[in-house]
Amino acid sequence: MIVEFAFVMVINLAPDPLQDWEYVGSFNSCQEAVLYVNLNFPDPNKVEMAYRCLNKEYINLPKDTQIKNIDMKTNSIRYYDKHKACKARRDCNE
User: Fold this and answer.
1) What does the DSSP assignment read for the chain?
2) Structural contact between residues 12 and 51, judged by C-beta atoms closer than 8 angstroms
3) Pick from 58, 53, 51: nearest CA to 32
4) pLDDT averaged over consecutive 10-residue blocks of the chain (94 residues)?
5) What does pTM read for this prediction?
6) 69 φ, ψ (degrees, to nearest 5)
7) Which end of the chain has less neighbouring CB within 10 Å, N or C?
């Protein structure tokens, strides 16, 4: 069984303070996530920045975060809405 998009990349373009992390996307591997950052964000040697690749089981994204599954092999992005299915059915109690 292959686990898809098990890794989440977060980036901080202003490392002071370190709590301003921004969600970049979900990837199949950390190597793909680092490649995506290198291709799409400023050169870390020229701009002060930090990034981390984390297993999605160990990160708690905000409830309203739109999940982006980024596949570097096919150069595609699939957006996934993290909202509860009850919102589509309009039977939520929240």
Assistant:
1) -PPPS-EEEEEESS-SSTT--EEEEEESSHHHHHHHHHHHS--TTTS--EEEEEEGGG----TTPPEEEEETTTTEEEEE--S-HHHHHT----
2) yes
3) 53
4) 70 71 88 89 75 84 84 84 56 60
5) 0.71
6) -90, 110
7) N
